[in-house]
Design a protein that fits this description.
Rossmann fold; 3 domains; nine-stranded mixed β-sheet; Ribosomal Protein S5, domain 2; 10 helices; alpha/beta; four-stranded mixed β-sheet
Length: about 450
């Protein structure tokens, strides 16, 4: 079989070249030229067989048959279980815990179904995988481990063992001898993924692929594979915290906005069934500079605590230090709070952070951020049973946010009875117990009233 030739193409404008360049000569973009495999030339053209199209109403849709893996939170993020022939890509930065997660899933699947699971690693030896398996307790007799980096050897393992689930860690380390280029190059990764996907579809075997990615989306990252697989899961987490989030970014067989949480421990990844406990502080007496809100991660509502600290001394160049939130937005909210609350913050350092390493981009946290900043500046604690939900405009108006009913229900489930919401929400919620606010100044007055403070 003739090897395919390698060319390079710009992902921005599509211009091609025979060699790699750092800057596209056509659109002048940097870092967009990637390696691609050209289709091999054919000696003769073959007439394509045309299959008649069928009216959509005459096609009998098949009911999906799902097989739960036994790992509850993993099943939740993929929609309830694996579908025969489903190809799942688990992407994340090196060291975040992808191998540990899928080794635990492989063990749970083997134990629950009694089927054979084939775990193939191109990065680590079988001995290294065995050490991790012992550490996390993944020692099922039905879990088979092989260290292979040749595509044909991988397919041979699948043919020989005929497993009910295949895990490949990672797809960037497997290479096909029929394709020029190094293992991990775009042409190699795409060819390997297509070959593995064909085998999974033909045999009806669920396939879990690990895809290494970097923050700058290297050319061998999962972006080049998203259109080849059925489901894309991203595994995220900061190295400084034990929290890990598994998100569904694409799912042909279930919701594409689900998210579940894990905690990294010495024994492996522990499922966090109630993530809100990780993102809020626990104290008997309220302290100044804190306020709790409810954010949405996909379809899941999570409580998060915002903390703020105001420097006592003045400074020529005051700092705005932010952790877990968008710095630009926090600077804006601090300015709005200063004006609406008649505060003096422009010459003081302002520090704002989230609890538990939570990363919040939800505008519904704006009101809690402003109340935390005002609480720190006034040294007046927000009452422990008060929770704030709402987006803040530059004018100080409190704007509505989506999924408000779900947010309020989660807050009440965890014991918050005095909930501050945007004006006009009470009628939509059918809940007379919430406190409506039209402006940030009204929210600050409400906090003083609830705390029993007179100004």
């Amino acid at each position: 079989m003739a090897k395919s030739t390698v060319s390079y193409a710009c992902t921005a404008c599509g211009a091609t070249s025979l060699r790699w360049v750092g800057r596209c000569p056509k659109c002048q973009e940097f870092g967009t030229v990637v390696e691609q495999a050209a289709a091999p030339a054919k000696a003769t053209a073959q007439a394509a067989r045309v299959k008649p199209a069928t009216p959509v109403g005459d096609i009998a849709g098949e009911r999906l048959t799902r097989t739960p893996t036994g790992a509850g939170e993993f099943d939740r993020v993929i929609g309830g279980g694996l579908v025969p022939g489903q190809v799942v890509l688990v992407a994340g930065e090196p060291g975040v815990g992808k191998s540990t997660l899928l080794l635990a899933v492989a063990h749970a699947f083997a134990e629950k179904t009694g089927g054979t699971v084939l775990y193939i690693s191109g990065e680590e030896s079988a001995d290294q995988i065995a050490l991790r398996a012992r550490r996390i307790g993944a020692l099922s007799d039905r879990l088979l481990v092989a260290d292979e980096s040749d595509l044909y050897a991988v397919l041979g393992q699948v043919e020989h063992h005929r497993p009910q689930l295949v895990v490949v860690d990672s797809v960037q380390t497997i290479a096909s001898p029929e394709i020029d280029g190094r293992a991990g190059g775009v042409s190699q990764v795409i060819e390997v993924t297509q070959a593995l996907t064909r085998t999974a579809k033909q045999r009806g075997i669920p396939l879990l692929l690990v895809g290494q990615s970097t923050k700058d989306n290297s050319i061998a990252g999962p972006r080049a594979l998203e259109h080849l697989v059925d489901t894309v899961l991203t595994f995220e987490g900061e190295r400084t915290t034990s929290l890990r989030l598994l998100r569904a970014a694409k799912n042909r067989y279930g919701p594409a906005d689900e998210v579940v949480c894990f905690e990294q421990t010495e024994e492996g990844l522990r499922e966090v069934l109630d993530p809100s406990e990780l993102f809020r502080g626990h104290r008997d007496v309220p302290v100044s500079g804190t306020c709790v809100t409810v954010t949405m991660e996909g379809r899941r509502s999570l409580l998060a605590e915002i903390q703020a600290l105001i420097g006592q001394g003045t400074s020529v160049s005051p700092r705005r230090t932010v952790t877990g939130l968008d710095t630009t937005r926090i600077v804006t909210l601090a300015a709005v709070t200063e004006r609406s609350g008649s505060l003096t913050l422009s010459q003081h350092d302002v520090f704002v952070a989230t609890v538990g390493g939570a990363q919040i981009s939800d505008p519904a946290a704006d009101l809690a951020v402003c109340l935390a900043i005002a609480s720190a500046a006034r040294d007046t604690p927000v009452p422990a049973d008060v929770l704030a939900i709402g987006e803040i405009a530059l004018s100080g108006d409190v704007r509505p946010v989506p999924h408000l009913a779900q947010r309020v229900a989660e807050a009440k489930r965890l014991g918050y009875q005095r909930i501050l919401v945007p004006a006009g929400s009470r009628e939509r919620l059918k809940d007379p117990g919430v406190t409506e606010l039209a402006h940030l100044s009204a929210a600050l007055e409400a906090i003083d009233r609830l705390a029993g403070v007179k100004r």
